[in-house]
## 1
Amino acid sequence: MARVLRYREALREAMTEEMERDDRVFLMGEEVGHYQGAYKVSEGMLDKFGPRRVIDTPIAESGFAGIGVGAAMVGLRPIIEFMTWNFSAVAFDQILNSAAKMRQMSGGQFNCPIVFRGPNASARQVGSQHSHAMEHFYAHVPGLKVLAPAFPADAKGLMKAAIRDDNPVLFMESETLYSVKGEVPDDLDTVPMGKAQIVREGKDCTIVAYSRMTHVAIEAAATLEKKGIDVEIVDLRSLRPLDEDTIVHSVRKTHRCVVVHEGWPYGGVGAEVSDRVQRLAFDFLDAPVLRITTLDVPMPYNAKLEQLCMPQPDRVVSAVERTVGKNRAS
Amino acid sequence: MARVLRYREALREAMTEEMERDDRVFLMGEEVGHYQGAYKVSEGMLDKFGPRRVIDTPIAESGFAGIGVGAAMVGLRPIIEFMTWNFSAVAFDQILNSAAKMRQMSGGQFNCPIVFRGPNASARQVGSQHSHAMEHFYAHVPGLKVLAPAFPADAKGLMKAAIRDDNPVLFMESETLYSVKGEVPDDLDTVPMGKAQIVREGKDCTIVAYSRMTHVAIEAAATLEKKGIDVEIVDLRSLRPLDEDTIVHSVRKTHRCVVVHEGWPYGGVGAEVSDRVQRLAFDFLDAPVLRITTLDVPMPYNAKLEQLCMPQPDRVVSAVERTVGKNRAS
Amino acid sequence: MSNIEAHSPEPSGQPSRDDDRLDGPAPATRPSSQVDHLAELYRQMLLIRRVEEEAARAYAQGKIGGFLHLYIGQEAVAVGALSALKPEDYVVTTYRDHGVAIAKGMSARAVMAELYGKETGCSRGLGGSMHMFDAKTGMLGGHGIVGSHIPLAAGAAFASKYRADGRVTLCFFGEGAVSIGGFHEGVSLAALWKLPIVFICENNEYSMGTPLSRTMSVEDVSMKALGYGIDRDRFFAEDVLTVEQRIGEAVQRARELSLPTLVEVRTYRFRGHSMSDPAKYRTAQELEERKKKDPVLRARTQLTEQGFAAPKLDQLEQAVEAEVMDAVKFAEDSPEPDASILEPTTYDGPFAA
Amino acid sequence: MSNIEAHSPEPSGQPSRDDDRLDGPAPATRPSSQVDHLAELYRQMLLIRRVEEEAARAYAQGKIGGFLHLYIGQEAVAVGALSALKPEDYVVTTYRDHGVAIAKGMSARAVMAELYGKETGCSRGLGGSMHMFDAKTGMLGGHGIVGSHIPLAAGAAFASKYRADGRVTLCFFGEGAVSIGGFHEGVSLAALWKLPIVFICENNEYSMGTPLSRTMSVEDVSMKALGYGIDRDRFFAEDVLTVEQRIGEAVQRARELSLPTLVEVRTYRFRGHSMSDPAKYRTAQELEERKKKDPVLRARTQLTEQGFAAPKLDQLEQAVEAEVMDAVKFAEDSPEPDASILEPTTYDGPFAA
Ligand SMILES: Cc1ncc(C[n+]2csc(CCOP(=O)(O)OP(=O)(O)O)c2C)c(N)n1
Ligand SMILES: Cc1ncc(C[n+]2csc(CCOP(=O)(O)OP(=O)(O)O)c2C)c(N)n1
Ligand SMILES: [Mg+2]
Ligand SMILES: [Mg+2]
């Protein structure tokens, strides 16, 4: 049996079930308690678990991120919510230098079972300081795991896996996904990290995407189908570790690849995918890997310009058409 | 005429000349004054310019980085030294959200003529928190320029260009380069940003490198020459903007490319170069682009393990041999 | 004000601006009589109030997007404080910035057009509600990351000391910002280097839904000054003239002695944190109580008590109404920025994709 | 101590450790007589002093690399403070961590082997001088980014309150760390949430080459406590028993009332900031003056004055010497870590190149 849940509810269920199962797990962040969560993800959790385990913080991201890491070092399993991932920029050092380093620099004595989570990337017209796709900074860092599911079932299963993992896990949600609905199996436990999934099978081109962009890819696929182009969509779900086998296997079949993500192109997740594909599927590629990303500018406030900057289905469609049109010179 | 200067001296000359020419330019950072600079880059500058223009700060990177940005907004031209780039992690937000955004989010009213500089990447056995190659985080960000010269003449000319530029420029030096000597023309003014240079011409494979890794590439080239392999070395100097024309032009000639940099592979500068090469030289490539980087682990303290993790000439040699050995299946 | 231009990096960095951007009151011109002066402050507060009420309406109609943080209830803080400044002085504030922008001299047109995301907005439609900037009036923004603008303000003050230009910088922030590192580092450095700045904590009792009692162990924010060895002040902002006078003392300390001050101004916001906040965390009674102390109404009452003639008041209010309606129409009619604006305002390297 | 194991994330997270790692003094065992107690504290201080003197020598010989920040001159702070703790309590400190590690119960062998980068080091040769960790003795490191470990310490204290395990956390940092955001945020949150922690600022008067007067506007660091509404204390650390007693009061406040305290301990380092620092920023006279107040010598004098028998003292010092020499030999003879150690201590995804 399965129920239809919103992405937001799936996350709440995952956190709630894990907190019921393990007293070491707690939720901490700005407005997670009395306010019921800035985006209502933690709605009702304060009433259920009380202020010992659902903790409202002052505005001090590096302080409470560090408190989470310290608590994790001695055996608790914190879930730290950033009201949005943009604000993790002030806690960047704690994630890079404390969370990601603790296990190795202590010779394996102190691992850091902590989850950092919150909405990531663009919302709507919130301007250049509030529209960052922060996963591109964090996926670069060994010692961290970075997840970015697109569907409620994956959000629930991966959140449960993240909470049970002994490494710091960064969980990228999206304000624009919270109300998206999807089937969630009643008996769903954890979804394994580091495994991508094929959400659409196809033969002409592989589209690699994650988080909200998976939905953009699906939309583009429908348009392309009408044009007689049959794409395969790889939904990464996990950015680090990256499931290169699934990506490469798909590209070896389709011989073409387009990567779609929010955030800037330079050295992003897309660049990494592009490198792995050209390296591991070199002899199979009939066209260069193309990336569709947010344009390389700070996000403008104006609605039209914002939409122009963000990856849209039509940009994905034309990129796929370009790659499919191309044939390797030889 | 030219003189032989150390990298450290070249930087000092550049800052000194620009401060003599423009009163709006000042140097601020930890131990830059009385202590003469943690790595002696600013030696003698306090005596020459006095405490108004060579300013020792407390340990408050986000504070003085922000002060620099605020001062730049109203017309000063600060040079902010991070004792090492590792410590910029606590000022990450000021660089990402203030420096890089100011010009666009103010509709072009306030630009931000500021230089952030300091030693970057590994030193010697300084451990996981002090060995970061931070350029991979910053090169991702539009609104910033990122430079990483390998030679004293470029260090001087690019530093002068950076100080005169109206955008925030991040200048990546290296503790392991400060004592490196090189010829610096007496009449050297600025070296243009965004232009790579060919430091060795060759026909069999292009090696793309920057900062200290350019020297590693040169060492590897000598070994490869003995083995009858003739490599071309592209020294990027500038990471953002990236001189893709010079890279692509070289690869179209050699048909092969190896990128060498310190820092982790995932989504780094190497991934970006790899993406551009496979995209813009697709039909010219005879082998996949390979990256030689620091291994994907936090830097260990132990000397042997540290050397193991860092890019070494022999790893570059074998990567080049692998690409040269490979011939495109068709 | 051309001073500011003179100190700005390059003329090229300062694109030519529509003249209408520079209409509106010159905040620091002192009218002869005290009553007229109060009338001017009332006019500014009313203008801010009405601009924001219209903005709220346009937001409901979907003409304004993103976050919209209203200043309604706090007008006396910005108007009183900015009235203690000279035109060439600097101001830096948070995302709750419409009041400060207008009080510093930005026109209602420039504010409204920015909210509409139009090319004629103060930040050419690129910044939006949270990022109001105006080089000509010394408005250094409108910043979205809590606490991070405090060092920027210290930087402007640093520049004034460096150039000995006699300017003072005002830095506004909420009581919720006091817990973050940016506050500590900015105030520490300003205290250590004796910078000409006034730190104004607008304590409106809530940080989003969190009351002060749950964000700070010491409810008297001004106590923080003791740790930095700087002067402090603390008062309620119901009377705009009180704000002007008390901030004026701190401004004088900054200008004459180059010493920073931490001022806690106690105020209250009548609306939610932003448009999306129903403000369930406070009672209707609490809100009603506070609305009785509305600084705008209070100034109006004072004016009539002090014999400011009814016709003049009427005239003033109609002028404000006209200015607001003109601003809305201007915003509606203005063109959207063209995509070409994106490139020149960012680095000039090649796009990577 | 198995308590700590019980609370640690997974047994798997705690690799089995060489028993020799657990030799060395149990810091909090109170010997019957006060003199014997002072003798034990003297023994610990002497052990720290001698371990670091040998480390400095090995560094000069190139057997130790990277940064080496010596604690010489400050031993009374760590030894006195840690002696006020129970074995299961936690401690967190900076890169200047050898003294704290040993005072918390880490063996000279584990410290020296770590400095040599050997597999038998406390952090298996991966951490080095700045990153001494020991899960068994509650030593939570050894951290390199100034100020960033302060929130970590508050996190350990948070965990103790969350679990009601009765533990106290000591957090050491230099006076140079007080200007950074990490200090402010860590102390603010500990004060707001009433965490069982003692913040110990080791004011050794210099932050690298910068004297306190050029880093803080208020030279009395403990004054910062006023802004957070927590208790404060301030004293010189020449007498190890004074340190033990005064920190003991703060520890009691933390354990019994779950209240944090900010303690400024005034001390001095006899060596440069690190091995590469010639310390030109201070005069020879200043250094000589301070060396007269060497806490290690002082404790030794007190012991003889209090009639601690010369043969016993001799025996104690020879035992320390033997322990140090054994540690050096152990470090020299120990194997280097194998490359295989890298993978399991980091994430288990595929290498990207
Ligand atoms: C570093 C950071 N964390 C969180 C936020 C989200 N946020 C925006 S405003 C706000 C509340 C600020 O309250 P206060 O400082 O009292 O100012 P007020 O809104 O009351 O004017 C929060 C949490 C942010 N913008 N920046
Ligand atoms: C954020 C950060 N900035 C700069 C440094 C470089 N650094 C290491 S120790 C130090 C001085 C610290 O002085 P203090 O806090 O007084 O401690 P002490 O060394 O005197 O024990 C500096 C500047 C650092 N490690 N972290
Ligand atoms: Mg508030
Ligand atoms: Mg010190």
## 2
Amino acid sequence: MRFRWGWAIPSAALFALAAGTAHAEEALPELSAGDTAWMLTSSALVLMMTIPGLALFYGGLVRGRNVLSVLMQCLVSAGLMSVIWVLVGYSLAFSGDGAYIGDLAKMGLAGIGPETLSGTIPEYVFVVFQGMFAIITPALMLGAFAERMRFSAYLVFITVWLLLVYAPLAHMVWGGGLISGWGALDFAGGLVVHMSSGFSALVAAIFLGKRQGYGSQPLPPHNLPFTVIGAALLWVGWFGFNAGSELAANGIAGLAFINTNTATAMALLVWLAIEWVHLGKPTVLGGATAAVAGLVAITPACAFVTPIGALYVGAGAGVLCYLAVAVLKPRLGYDDSLDVFGVHGIGGAWGAIATALFIAPFALEGAWGAQLLTQIKSVAFTAIFAPLVTLIILFVMRAVMGSLRVEAEQESEGLDLSQHSESAYSTGAGSTLAGAFSQDS
Amino acid sequence: MRFRWGWAIPSAALFALAAGTAHAEEALPELSAGDTAWMLTSSALVLMMTIPGLALFYGGLVRGRNVLSVLMQCLVSAGLMSVIWVLVGYSLAFSGDGAYIGDLAKMGLAGIGPETLSGTIPEYVFVVFQGMFAIITPALMLGAFAERMRFSAYLVFITVWLLLVYAPLAHMVWGGGLISGWGALDFAGGLVVHMSSGFSALVAAIFLGKRQGYGSQPLPPHNLPFTVIGAALLWVGWFGFNAGSELAANGIAGLAFINTNTATAMALLVWLAIEWVHLGKPTVLGGATAAVAGLVAITPACAFVTPIGALYVGAGAGVLCYLAVAVLKPRLGYDDSLDVFGVHGIGGAWGAIATALFIAPFALEGAWGAQLLTQIKSVAFTAIFAPLVTLIILFVMRAVMGSLRVEAEQESEGLDLSQHSESAYSTGAGSTLAGAFSQDS
Amino acid sequence: MRFRWGWAIPSAALFALAAGTAHAEEALPELSAGDTAWMLTSSALVLMMTIPGLALFYGGLVRGRNVLSVLMQCLVSAGLMSVIWVLVGYSLAFSGDGAYIGDLAKMGLAGIGPETLSGTIPEYVFVVFQGMFAIITPALMLGAFAERMRFSAYLVFITVWLLLVYAPLAHMVWGGGLISGWGALDFAGGLVVHMSSGFSALVAAIFLGKRQGYGSQPLPPHNLPFTVIGAALLWVGWFGFNAGSELAANGIAGLAFINTNTATAMALLVWLAIEWVHLGKPTVLGGATAAVAGLVAITPACAFVTPIGALYVGAGAGVLCYLAVAVLKPRLGYDDSLDVFGVHGIGGAWGAIATALFIAPFALEGAWGAQLLTQIKSVAFTAIFAPLVTLIILFVMRAVMGSLRVEAEQESEGLDLSQHSESAYSTGAGSTLAGAFSQDS
Amino acid sequence: MKLIKSIIKPFKLEEVRDALNELGVQGMTVSEVRGFGRQKGHTELYRGAEYVVDLLPKIKIEVVVADESVSSVIGAITQAAATGKIGDGKIFVLPVEEAVRIRTGESGDTAL
Amino acid sequence: MKLIKSIIKPFKLEEVRDALNELGVQGMTVSEVRGFGRQKGHTELYRGAEYVVDLLPKIKIEVVVADESVSSVIGAITQAAATGKIGDGKIFVLPVEEAVRIRTGESGDTAL
Amino acid sequence: MKLIKSIIKPFKLEEVRDALNELGVQGMTVSEVRGFGRQKGHTELYRGAEYVVDLLPKIKIEVVVADESVSSVIGAITQAAATGKIGDGKIFVLPVEEAVRIRTGESGDTAL
Ligand SMILES: Nc1ncnc2c1ncn2[C@@H]1O[C@H](COP(=O)(O)OP(=O)(O)O)[C@@H](O)[C@H]1O
Ligand SMILES: Nc1ncnc2c1ncn2[C@@H]1O[C@H](COP(=O)(O)OP(=O)(O)O)[C@@H](O)[C@H]1O
Ligand SMILES: Nc1ncnc2c1ncn2[C@@H]1O[C@H](COP(=O)(O)OP(=O)(O)O)[C@@H](O)[C@H]1O
């Protein structure tokens, strides 16, 4: 999101004249149809990132007997988080001025109407745009514990996590709380979205334990084209995520847009080059993963670096996320099924630091070194806060609900059948084996 | 669509000052680049709802030997309806002031040029936005008679139906005709799009008869991931459908957007809860169906209720559409293959009534009770008009063209082969059985 | 792209008053949030055309053992072209005023900042919008040599081709060079994008030779639903491509949008009608191909004809591209695997000529006959320039790198395994054969 | 014991299974196959080119039964699977020397 | 020579293959099948309707071995594939009269 | 009658079918299988991890013929399917006691 304390104000002034619809002589901002048009579009794009984008990216990577469970977890995140966001989440994140969390003044969107503005856009649009972030962030985590978590445990987990991890972090970084007070820069969510989900996911993956067969037998993706489609839709939708975070259709949005594309492209090229040298072949899954890594890394930085800076941010993401996924993970031996930590945790942390490393002169307010230290401090804070709270949540959940994991037999049968009584595919066209049921009711 | 008679005018006035690009002192509206940007985007989103959204939603639900026939029917609706819309459809719906139908003054878009405005947007944009509605509405019906209608019969049916059911209803509700005169509220098409297609589809399903094996053997979906992708794209695209119907990028569009998301989310949660209690498991297909039901129900209401109201609209859709699909249909025994009536017919009717039930103070013009009666009256009218005309069309078609259904052998062979001489899939990678053809020409 | 020399200026003037945000009394254009909103959206839409649109359209048409190689080639085009575009491509195409090619003044986007405008939009947005064209154009060609080119050769080929064919043509037509000097009209890239890729692709297909088994055994599509989804996303994304090329959200953008839809629809109907008469059945693949042919043909013309004109442009595309694909190709015997020449080469050439044939009075500057001759001249130029340079590139590449084609055994094993060591699918749900690996490292 | 291997039309699977169940056959193994035979294939169209597909989808049912059941099983399958049109398929009978139930290690007819 | 045709639970494939490899069996052919039997199927839900799926996924392993190996192969498969639960599957032994290695034309036991 | 069961490389299917047709064999049943054998598998890469896939795609052709045709059929398949490289596959011959044409109920050699 457009960083609203500190840097945002001069930038708003900078573009006030150019904006055409803003009138410098007026104190209060007016609604801009152009900004609103872009934010409506961006909100739609960010939803598309989760469904079907992330759903396909993750869904293709699991085995065929678990694909529906992944799609379901994405879909239900859109359902559950949307409702919670309107009821309390938005208020906790964006109302009030606590250091750690907001207040309940805007519960149920109290006090907001069609005419209420947030900057130059209707507040409803701001609410729903932010709500789309609240949908994707918990859903990102599911990749870490895919193929083994009980559906009911997932529902409880993401609900509590939204309230105790996401809403506080969003408030601290974007809502005027602690971290924004430090002057940390996080344009579209390197800390709030990616580090928070990536580090929490790692904890959850370890807490739940490895999948059956992990290490002894490969657990290959069942449908790589789905994964590539998913990565492509993430790429497209991410323009709404990043350029939308300017909350306006202006030059900074344009910068965020081109940087998003450039860093992603560079991460992809670097990753493929490493694979080619290291493994002998560049892979499609590598390319798709690299694209997401680049998107993650540029997220906090996209409005603060030039396109040349974005090349460096992307290249760094390619190197670091590759190392995390292909070297670190096998060494440490945890089963982060779809590499949420390696891509979002590491990519997000790198992006937050790279924001200062490659910051453009026009975006730097104080001293370069000070900004770098602030970024590192905010990364460190998030790297401790998110997984710690997540761990507490998981321990309490296990104490209350019992094991968060499906039973061994359910796991080998697949989550689609055991959690949802469904099968994803009936065998190919022309076949009728799948029709060989007997109807019961 | 933004309801243009009655309520719309005060709302336009309300936002005139906030809009920035509107000049209160001028009588004539000017082009707003912001509104135009949003309407161009919305038009693209609404096409995406049909292709690939609806195509995948329905295509995944049929058996593998009929998936291409479903994709084809969606694709050809985009082809055929677009051409008819430009030639006569738009004029019949939106030109002239008959009570039941428009006139032919704008045949072939006569009199419209790049500089012609419709409100603050180019009329061409209004024409194409409305054209996208004329594409999806007939296509919605195909779910009811999927897996058994002749392709040629489909072409004739949707053509005649567009002219005799859709265009008149659009005129009556949005074009200044009968129903708008009653003061009925239908923001984005609860009556015009969903009830009209849902009730007509029911008639068509009964008229065509059940599929072979219906009742005695299950006819399971061949690719549920496709269905989930389709539902997701419908959800994303529906923002263009609903928020686009304001024809502007303003606070009402923002309200319509957040309501669309909120009601859909709530419908999904409620449906899953019912399934969990009733069947023991929440299903992915249930979630996807519920999302569409929520989207349908909020369509007429999205600019008239608050987000809290949208929760009720969505919850009602979850309950009622579940009952229609899982209880009513098996009891009555008709074969509405993909539940067009249960989702669009029932969801649309509920939404139109819920519009009055949960109407927000800022949207209510007269007395609450009067508005409720008006809504009920318009629902009743549509519930009679659409299926009646549809039935007449079908009887005449059968008299002229013979059976509208494929032959029994073609049905068991599948419509892909019998109607289009194609197979959707050649078996998995590495296989060559599918390549074992002999070339003929 | 909005044709910036000649016709564009009066049109800009025409809409200046209507635009609301433009102030006639000012010499310099200001940033329009509305125009910027639409161009951000359009840029995202154009990327969506390549990934996942084109990737799926082509990916579904190849055999299952080559699908990943096609997805990879699309993905890597987004990676490689984006980086090259920022580094030198944009400058070569749009900076300086050479007749044949631009200069290097804007290398690395030197001199551009968030406040730099290009017309009413930030130049960064213009750069990235044009960059999306530079991604899709080389990727279009891969359909011609699908299932047989080495991945490394592909990378070199598209890099050199972008610099020696695409950038010069973009400069000549849109950057103020030779062809724009003639007064040729090419709104969104009939010459620059479609003819250039289509004619070059033909040469590359012939240069690489036929696939194993071509002619003697059928090489059927492995997943037609993917192809239909791809065509649908191309259709949706093309609105950004064509209406975005106005670089503003105004009446001409609206005209381009409705024409795009109308011509595509008409091409689809005409192609299906021909198939029905000629082959006895209308096919889904025919419909999808026809849609793309219609989109291609209207590309150069979309801002210069009326919607009725668009019907003729689309009908012509349906007839001519059908003949090219179903009659010409088998007669001449070249193996243009996925019909890039028949659809893009022929469709683009037809569209460029049809631009003059059906030009609307408001778009015609000089004499009709003169415009027609200019169009023919620019078509002839492109039909010689692009394939000629392509041929030289291919000969040099072969001299330097050896055969551009994979080895025979790699081809029969499939490119997915031989180039990327991956398989697209593990067999259906419930299966474990695909899990029957042994882990190596 | 004999292995009765039948190739049938896909949509006849339900009926054959029911017929076998009625005879008291408790188990069988089914797979998807493709068959060449006298039955003509269908034509597919692909951008103007026509192909004849002559490998048709069939279902293979394998059931092992005790010797005394062979003729009744053949009779049941023949009746249930026949439509009278070319392509109805074949039944082949092969000798089986031994059968073992993996779960218990039982062998011979009791393993079936 | 004998053809040993076994129907096993899918997730047992790895173990059976390893057990056969240990016995020195160098080749085998595997396919996906579906089995009816005593093992109960599972229920699927589809918009409120419940279906029992009683065609369960199984793996068929076909391996041809010399006569003297038959009992050890049966033993190995039985041991590796057993879980003790219903549905573990069957082993059938059929006589094979000849085997040919296509590459070399060799026949008899040396072709295996 | 004999059942000739051959496992071949997938891309050889067309040639084998043509060779059998030339001999006058009118029907056959084909399925997709996977084979383990002496032929080495290929490596797949997955985010830095390497896997060896040693279950390779093969085609199984089952054709039942009269006793007198066995050797010519074996010869035809051997010739059409051989490439000389490891993995070309096997042919197994099994005795068949009876064959029935479902459509007509005919049995014996005339049922083929
Ligand atoms: N000699 C054979 N060996 C194995 N399978 C056969 C043989 N002949 C026919 N089949 C199988 O039986 C199926 C039906 O045979 P076909 O000749 O088409 O019809 P019909 O059985 O009515 O004479 C074929 O598709 C094939 O799968
Ligand atoms: N008579 C039979 N002929 C062929 N296959 C059989 C037969 N009986 C069982 N099978 C196969 O063996 C599998 C397991 O049999 P089932 O009766 O479920 O359990 P169990 O082997 O433990 O008694 C079945 O799914 C089926 O594939
Ligand atoms: N003993 C066997 N029983 C069943 N199938 C076998 C046997 N040996 C080999 N096969 C099948 O034959 C295929 C080829 O065998 P392989 O040993 O790789 O090569 P070759 O036949 O050239 O010696 C295997 O992939 C497998 O499907």
